[in-house]
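Handout, page 2. Input:
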Amino acid sequence: MIHARGLTRRFTVKRETVDAVRGIDLDVEPGQLVAFLGPNGAGKSTSLRMLTSLLPPTSGTAVVAGHDVVADPAGVRARIGYVGQKSSAGENFRVRDELVTQGRCYGLGVAQARRRADEVLSLLDLEPLARRKPGTLSGGQRRRLDIAMGLVHRPELLFLDEPTTGLDPQSRANIWEHILRLRTEHGTTLFLTTHYLEEADSMAERVVIIDHGLIIADGTAQGLKSDLAGDRVTVTTHDLAEATRAAEIAARIASPDEVTTDGTTVRLRVSRAEAVLPEYLRSLEAAGVKVATAETARPTLDDVFLALTGRSLRETDGA
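Output:
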């Protein structure tokens, strides 16, 4: 569905060359839901624009839905949908008319465009809004309309650039309900960017992380968290001497470089916290170390990014 090799994009600004995308290799199979993550400026949107033929690469190749983005951009555009970060509908025409016009732009006949407009209105629960103008819709309703416009020609592959940014939690959940329905009922391949890491964690079957124009991680959310971040076990003791002893015992369970202390708090990173914690507490008790508190925590995708780059992905938002 997507095959990219050595794809790059360089910009020249005041005689300086900026590498927005330095070289990505990527394969996406039909039917996958892929979350493409990274900080602002990492190359996410630039990559999407190249894969959708909106921006020519400076080197490398990309075949999307069976068509080369450089040699046959029209073939790519006919088979994909693209929902950008900004609203794509106009302000002065009714919702259904916007969808019919979009279908006509993709070469559908009048009757077919009208039929498809009615289908996507139903699919995205927009039928009650068909006669309203986009400017009167809420943020969540407008986002559903954007998705409808990207689907009116029945694309095999849908690109979604930050589909839920700026929406309230209820609207975000509603958008995701419709996105997941697309995949379940129609087998649509979905490739999206998002700054909401919990969305990628819970919804995507595959997570690709890009930083400084390069892909630095690729796998399932659970696999990346397990391999690159690990679970956390945290215990606190009553004094510094006990914390030192607790850290020494922790180093027998986890590798020494995965054990840290902060005052009377000891933290260790392990693969399965639920199995390690009972053993650790028994060892502490046998050594006479009194534990004040103990807890475990599952890693997040932000922990993965921190392990890979030494900084938090959330700290880069808006940078």
